[in-house]
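=== RUN LOG ===
request id: a7f3
mode: sequence -> structure
chains: 1
length: 418
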Amino acid sequence: MPPHPPSHGAPFPALDPLHSRSIAESHERCRAFGLRAGERPDLSLLSRADLRQAQERNQRLCQQAMPVMELLWEQLSHTHSMVALTDTQGTVLHALGDAGFLERANRVALAPGAVWSEAAKGTNAVGTALMDEQPVLVHGPEHYLSANHFLTCSAAPIFDHAGNVLGVIDVSGEQRSYHPHTLALARMSARLIENQWFADRFRDALKLRLHAAASGLGTLQEGVVALDADGRVLGANRCALDLLSRSASALRRQSVDDIFGVSLARMVDHARLAGDTPMTLVTNPAPCGPSPHSPARPVWAAEPGQLSAARGSALEVPSGPRALYARLSLDAGHLVRSTLPVSPLHAAAGGDVPLVVSPPAIASTALPAATLRERENDAIREAVDAAAGNLSRAARALGIGRSTLYRKLRAARQPGQG
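=== RESULT ===
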């Protein structure tokens, strides 16, 4: 069934072919499940005891999602809609929203204890987001069951540090309440929950923060990689997977030296001596080929301002060098290694014993960044050569803007300057 525009409310944007294909594939699955578009939907709910057990199984997710749900609802309180959190089976764990809409939603069992998988409720934002593992909008007659055509729903899956789905956050409302920003709000809310999950899971780990722009460090869009004391990757958030063009499973088999060609010791030196001044790191090409140790999983592909997943393949996404700004977060008490002797004991040991680093106690000293700058310049030259001098193509390969590439090329031609 092709997507239909709403008859009321905000104008519905032109949908891209990928969205139309996603809806069509979902309708095919619904027919394979044996659902009929005109049938009465299953309105059953879990018993209170079973719902309580589902909430307890997902206690950590619920605790971290509820404040975000309340914040999201504040942005939507003027609309006839609701915010819902589901588990990986599509079971609604919590919901809050407009009293009038909640009453109507209850008539189609859009309430805590209801299961909104595709197999149970046909094409819908929650169930389809779980199947596609991507944010999705399902509007009006795009719902497979005609009983749900009055709905407009935007949902985004929530992922953990290993790339596994934790659940879904959904905004549902009456079709005429459609707003073009709702899906973006759902995606942002999912990202907030993921970042809270990540911060809680790796509260005691070293954190390498990444972004394509120095100003992006510390924002919701920064990539964060958790590291052990030897520089091996423990986990990464979705932004980091996007920036590094690696799957979560592949990234956990690597170290910072594998990814950037720079040891953790060098990064520690920079953090100790340069404080909050970002490093410039250049990624090594992402590995290609299937992993014999992990099943086929979605692979996050780096695209400017967008996250996409290639389902059904264990292949890593090949990627050329990419310049990123980075900052290593060192908290007092972290055991790390450094190449800089800071005490007679450490010097006598050859600079290779664990150090307890406390950034506030270290003077802010300028660190020569020639090595990093040289790596960046080499990567830029290789990208320009590979693009046969086409700077626009080279900028895309590096994952930076064309104006940024121009500025870096000018700087490289001027000895002694940035």
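=== NOTES ===
The longest helix spans residues 182-201.
Residues 1-11, 289-318, 340-370 have pLDDT under 50 and may be disordered.
=== END ===
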